Amino acid sequence: MDIKNILQLFAAGDVVNYAGGSDVSNAGTYNVNAGSAVSTGDLAPEMKTFYSKSLIALVGPSLVHEQFGQKRPIPRGGGKSIEFRKFSKLPKALTPITEGVTPAGNKLRVTAVTATVDQYGDYIEQTDMLELTAIDPTIVETTKELSAQSSLTLDTVVRNVLVGGTNVMYVPSVSGSTVTEITSRANITGLCRLRVKDVFKAAAELKAVNAPKIGGSYVAIIHPHVSYDLMQDAGEQWIGIQKYANPQNILRGEIGQLGGVRFVESTEAKIFAPAVINNGVRRLTVAANVSASTSVTVNETLVADTPATAIPVYVNGVANTITAIAVNDSTGVATLTLGSAVTLSAGATICGKGAGKDGAAVYATLFLGENAYGVTDIEGGGLELIVKQRGYGNDPLNQRSSVGWKATKVAKRLLEEYMIRMESGSEFSYEAEEN
Fold it and tell me: What is d(CA 134, CA 217) in angstroms, rounded to the nearest whole number?
């Protein structure tokens, strides 16, 4: 059953009975008594559960980053802490056993890793919208938008924890036959494109620490821009999902595999872009030649500013700062005052820090083994859809209704060596923005 049909059932009147399973595709039967007392401004407990399960059915397929983590239920009555389990490897048993003597044995070493859960949520209030006998179509669109918002929010919460890992590799810069190793994010350019060799290297690193596989393979979460680069390099080595022998086992978002790694594509794979300099602009272009001066005009439209703290930037790949921005009232031309004098040609690049020195966005591809991280489950209180009828709260004239969502969420990295953040540029690096 889709969200429109669900909401139509609700809008037709007060639901007094619901008999159905947890599967929203088989919703069961409803006894609807239009005109029954609805002025309480609340739903029956059965329908609250049904709505929450419906939201989970809509949101679940979009949660790409959490699908490979240990799932833990939301703690109830135990405060805001949740516990994940990290299993340590047993050492080799190299001491020979003495005949007839029982050895000391060993113990399974389990480390409890705790995390504090947080709540997220939002709602949209509507005026004179939710009627007893008819549905305003905006409620359908409202719920769809809230579902999309909650999906992106929860997926980003998990992603931001994962990309903060300490195990990182950088894709080298390749120009023709020249390969230049990269040792920091700031040195990545659009020429640092993910290659077949980099995939095999990441898989080898996970194998070297005996990271367990996920369903027989390692998994990588990759941005479409980077998967494009990789497939260009891989050619016939790339195995698309249409070639799988068992397509029923395809992972959520999976696009193919290479070198024992299954790739899951997501537009929410992390992009590190240059920081915003001014007026939403991250990259500036020098308008005229500059000779040993701190005054530089740029082509972009900016807002006059004298920041309390100098803005850190790269000027043609060299660290510098902007201490003031002046804008000519008649021409709109912006002039920067830099912290250090520079000599530049027209067309040179000035960009905010946070990504490549030349303004290239940096993409994070996550290579994962099993049990690398843990997440709270969206079921069992992890995600809830909240629908309020007209008359709820302080609404004496029954003018307002609302639809909202609330979620309890946390993610925790458990074994850093079981996950690798591979940072690269892309053919699209100079177009991409932070996500």
Answer: 51
